[in-house]
Design a protein that fits this description.
Layout: E1 14-25, E2 45-48, E3 51-57, E4 62-68, E5 76-83, E6 93-98, E7 103-108, E8 116-119, E9 154-161, E10 167-175, E11 178-187, E12 190-196, E13 204-205, E14 210-211, E15 214-218, E16 222-223, E17 229-237, E18 251-259, E19 265-267, E20 273-276, E21 291-293, E22 306-309, E23 315-321, H1 333-340, E24 342-348, E25 354-359, E26 370-373, E27 379-383, E28 387-391, E29 401-404, E30 416-417, H2 421-425, E31 427-433, E32 442-450
Antiparallel strand pairs: 1-32, 2-3, 3-4, 4-5, 6-7, 7-8, 9-10, 10-11, 11-12, 13-14, 15-17, 16-17, 17-18, 18-21, 19-20, 22-23, 23-24, 24-25, 26-27, 27-28, 28-29, 30-31, 31-32
Amino acid sequence: MTAAGSGRAAPRITPLGRTLLDPRALYFVSYDGLVNTNSFQKNGLFTYRGRQYAAWYAEDRRVTVARRTPGAADWATVTLDHRLKCDDSHNVISMGVSRWDGRLHLVMDAHSDGFRYVKSAAGLLDRPAGMPWDRSAFGVVRTTLDGLALTTRFTYPQFLATPEGDLQLSYRVGISGDGRNALAEYGRSGWTVLGEWSASTGTYTNEHGTSTARNMYLHGIDYDVHGRLHALFTWREQNAAVLCAGGGLTNHDTGYVHSADRGRTWRNDAGTVVGTTGGADPVGVTGPGLVVDPLGPDHCLMNQESQATDSAGRPHAVISYVPDRFGPCTTDYVADRVAHGRAFHLRKGPDGTWRKTEIPVPLDSSQRTRLVLDRYDNAYAVLPRGRIAAASNASGYTDWTPLYDGAGLNAFGEVVIDETRAAADGVLSFLYQERSTGRTPSPLYVADFALPA
């Protein structure tokens, strides 16, 4: 058998079929996305201890949670006591597992306002055959984390499990263009706030103008095999004066930080401390050594795209923007990305340098691409509408090739990846919703593809 990460197996996918979650899932388009399939909703679909879990809003706007044995056709569903409060695609559902007590946690329904939170009974995910999978397995839906209030301007929940089995919650405090990233943690004593770790203040100046407020948008936040926490990101400026023309995106640069102490202290790629969580010196736009791929704000750089870490603990990301060859100034981020947007694979090489390769598949979309690594560290980009391209570790990720054109899916755009199943079962599994019109509900599916064994 080939060793993990050796790169001796070429990337490939074998379609295993799809399963229906909901024939009439809630459908509306806002911010060019769907509330059930925004790709940044970390763990809207995941696998744990022999079961796969999914969450979405049904036609009646109620939160629905389902599970199955991976590969099975039938899902067992539970309807929770909460309805989506408004037609905003940011108000996604994110799930997480606290391994030390076997609970399922859900945070949902927030865009710069109050969130909803619910957790399951202890042991529900550890003993799936021995405990009932119904409404009684879940507690009351709350507006706090078991009494712990976070912020009245909450967005972008992402759960991540620490190497010790605790559960952390990443979220944004504030609003687009003036927000800070923060962390909370669930352990043996319950929920605690670790605090904010990125800054919205500071001055950014380019040839067009100046901005004095912004927020850091995460491409991801993940622990690697060695227990180091990685975060790749882009900055969004509040002041559109930094753009060459209106209608673009004020996102600029791809930055990188990591933490060796569970998110308490942040270091740049060179290892220099550039911020602390809950302290007076968060990571800021003028921090030293943060940028690993410089790019100005005139290229419709997308925020919250995708990241992963390989078997050696090295960070990878997919970013997307309009390259210089299509002109120096974008004027409409949706139209320009649809016409000229390209995705790029950005990664840290074995020699410590950062490399970037264009994925030779036109985006033909304004939306995001997701990155998956298989057990050989081959890379797979799941582009909008469920299209898949791949590159081999053996080539140094220079041989990107289309593998699947998404034919027959009729997927709206972004997909939600099961980040855990690729490692657990060698299956690329993603949730997608069929395109519809207006507010007409549409089917929600999970598609599965076998990766190299």
